[in-house]
Amino acid sequence: MRTIKVTKYKKSEQNEFEDVPPIITEPRENVYQWRMPTTREQVHYLSARAIETIGVIKKIIREVGKIEKLQCLVFSINQQNAQHLVRLKNAGLIGEIELTCSTIKNRAENENVRSYKILLKENGIKMNFAYSHAKITLAKTAKDYFVVETSANLVNSAKYEQFVISNNKPLYDYYKRQIQRINDTSPV
Fold first, then answer.
1. DSSP conformation class of 114
2. Does residue 5 have a pLDDT over 50?
């Protein structure tokens, strides 16, 4: 693995996120070739082939262990990935799950959305809808706070995707507040 290290940022009083040193990697064929960032670290990936957000969630579980709380703000989700989340939750590998999906593509009354909304609800997974195009996943484990900023959704895709994975509690808390704000102000 060829890694490009970037000079560590100078911390300022105004910005608690500035001291996160990014590690930029070469494209990888498989999410299992990636490494998860350590505390206060950030890793950048561009997939060398199609990699989905569900693969990153499984990678966190494989490397770190149980995800206590998973929050996803996505443009779209499909039935297959809804079933993956249900299986991971029912296996005890993920505790609480909260999804916020876009109303742009996933109309709350769409037949497909209704079917996986029922599946998720029956399995204790909270689902919200908001007018959003963001794709952010938060995964809290026993000692880590992962933030995944990506171009990927919770769907199976044949596209190349970009991922920035951080292990940073202040950044995690920031996005947690922003997702809550989006959910609180959503008319759906």
1. H
2. no
Query: How far is residue 34's CA from residue 39's CA, in Å, rounded to a whole number?
Result: 16
**Helices vs. strands in the chain: H and E counts, helices first:** 4, 9
CB atoms within 10 A of CB 122: 9
Q: Cβ distance 182 to 73 under 8 Å?
A: yes
Rounded Cα distance between 131 and 174, Å, is: 19
What are residue 121's phi and psi, to 5 degrees?
-60, -45
Instruction: Find where tokens 């579980």 sit.
Output: 61
Predicted TM-score (pTM) of this structure: 0.81
Confidence of residue 95 (pLDDT cuts 50, 70, 90): very high
What sign results for the dihedral spanned by CA atoms 44, 166, 3, 31? Answer: negative
Cβ neighbours of 11 (radius 10 Å): 12
Mean pLDDT of the chain: 79
Residue 157 has pLDDT above 90, yes or no: no
Closest of 131, 126, 123, 151 to residue 46, by C-alpha: 151
Rounded Cα distance between 83 and 57, Å, is: 14
Domain 3-9+16-185, what fold?
Answer: Endonuclease; Chain A (3.30.870)
Distance CA 129, CA 107 (A): 9
Question: Alpha-carbon distance 187 to 113, whole Å?
Answer: 17
